[in-house]
């Protein structure tokens, strides 16, 4: 498996056109971190697991934060799509937030999960297969408070958008035997093949 190349297209995709909107707060940012982080997970998952928030200059949080790689199935391509995300443990699974920095549209990885909730989670050296469930009702309020304590900027992202930012629980099903995560897909697609956003914004 080859690592993602630094010259691979990297676009935010608030819509299916593969373009950023004028009011997209992630527009114009250097997204080379995305490829570096995925590559680091391939070579040193222990180091990749603990991400320093100072690498995101727009973040108010400081210190080390837990990250995972989420591998979804592209809803149009059928190909594996990978996204690095912040997470918090939650019982038999992991909590992630589909914030996309407070843009009007959901991130592509969340759209992929709506089409097929079966996914793979790589958290440090632990790999597992999981099923994604969008947290609703009273539990959502509880989990939202948990995630905001972990990453306070989520409240800022919610204030930017009229959509309710989804909280997703990745419920562990079984241990996976995959040795390395897939590289992001080549070229721009409408299912996240080249979607890349700063950690904390996804």
From TrEMBL:
One of its GO terms (molecular function) is oxidoreductase activity. SUPFAM superfamilies: FMN-binding split barrel (SSF50475). GO terms for cellular component: plasma membrane. Residues 1-11 have a biased composition (Polar residues). Coiled coil: none annotated. Gene3D superfamilies: Electron Transport, Fmn-binding Protein, Chain A. It catalyses: oxidized coenzyme F420-(gamma-L-Glu)(n) + a quinol + H(+) = reduced coenzyme F420-(gamma-L-Glu)(n) + a quinone. InterPro entries: F420H2_quin_Rdtase (IPR004378), Split_barrel_FMN-bd (IPR012349). Transmembrane segments: none annotated. Residues 1-28, 179-202 are annotated as: Disordered. Pfam families: F420H2_quin_red. Belongs to the F420H(2)-dependent quinone reductase family. NCBIfam families: hi_GC_TIGR00026. This is Nitroreductase.
